[in-house]
Structure formats: structure tokens, C-alpha cells
Amino acid sequence: MSEDHEDSQRYIQALALSIDPAWRRLDPVERASDAEAFVGAHEGARQDGVRSFSYSTVAIEPQVDLLLWRMGPSLEALECAGSRLLTAGIGRWATVRHSLIGRIGPSQYVRKPSSQEQSLFEGERSRYLIVYPFTKTTEWYLLSKEARQGIMNEHMRVGHEYPGVRQLLAYSFGLDDQDFVVAYETDDLVEFGDLVRALRATESRRSTVRDTPILTGIHRPLDAVLGLLGA
Question: What integer pLDDT is reported at residue 49 of this predicted model?
């Protein structure tokens, strides 16, 4: 692999954590110290080249309290930043419930991505993040390129009818169990729900094997998420 090719790579991870309920029964001073150490490790991820945004899933997702949306230049960078996080403060009480890994690359079906299809790590964060694994059928990959392009054109046309929803598609082939990691940002969950329902009626739905679990998080500063947990 050339150095230029390596530099062009970006790896993403949706990291879903649960916090042991026993932590909430610790002394308030100890909880505050744990929260401070954890926030410090989260903010220090930049030294590994990792960008990370925090989302609350408190009382929303079963067995998940915190969703971290992370991007780094390599799996090693994500590993180092994750190790610091899981050994700092409240991280010692955390369990990884879901980890979805993917690689950002150019789309086979879009020559010039629209603003809806740009990186979800740039600009201002929307209120909600929805992320899930996605796998297609063997029959899909055996279709001709022209047939797949036609089906995806319909899929993208429907998506563009909901301009308030942004999407990122990352490739997981050879990296994780799924084919893709799909993530959406939106300030309007009703609009997002309408988009998903509309996509159910497109030809592309026939090729879906798996698109669960769906993880939905509310964008909050990490210290605010920890506050909801009792920090």
C-alpha cells in the first residue's frame, strides 16, 4: 500500500458503551473524579488523530448508555484512543455493547456527493445520530453494474426528497461482520422516519439481509451525558 493511499484512508467506529449501575452507588466525589478522568481521555483522543463525538442513549437503548461516533486515520489510532478511554475513570466501569467499524471511501454510484452525503464529522452536529450495520444479499453483488446503478438511482432520488437528513456510508468488507456502516444525522426524527418508510418501498429493499441493531443517540457534550448517569 502506497503512502499516499494510506494517507487517504479514514476509519470510522460507532462505539456503544454501557456503564455498570454499581458505579452510580459510589461516593459523589469519586464519581466526579471518574467523570473528569473519562472526559480528559475522550478529549485527548486528538493526539492519536481521532475525532470523537458523544451521544446519549441513556434510557433509550437497552444496555447502552453512551454512543461515541469516532473517526481516525487507522485502526491502530482508534485502538490507542479507545484503550485510554476504557482505562480512565468511569471507563473502568464500561462494557462495549456494540462496535461497528468501517472505512470511508468513494461511492461506486455517486460521482459528486451532495451536501447530504458529506462526512458526518464536518460542520455542526445535528441533534440526532442514527447508525446501524447493513448487509446486502449475494444476488445483489451478482447483478450487473448497470442494474445496480439503476436501483441505487431510485434509492438516492428518494433520499434527496428529505434534505434535512444527512448520510454517511462506510465500507466494512473484510473489517467487520456487516458490508457497510450506515449513519444518518438529523434534527427531525419525524422526517427521518418518513425517509426510512419511503425507502422501504424502493427496489433496493429486496437486497437487504440485515440492518439492525439501529442505535439512536442524542448529541450532548460528554460531561452532560455523564451527568445524566449520575456524575
Answer: 93
What φ, ψ does residue 43 adopt, rounded to 5°? -70, -30
Across the range 13-23, mean pLDDT stands at 97
Domains, the chain:
3-103+219-228 (3.30.70.1030), 106-217 (3.30.70.1030)
Name the grid cell of 61: 437503548
The per-residue pLDDT for 184 is 96
Give pTM, 2 decimals: 0.90
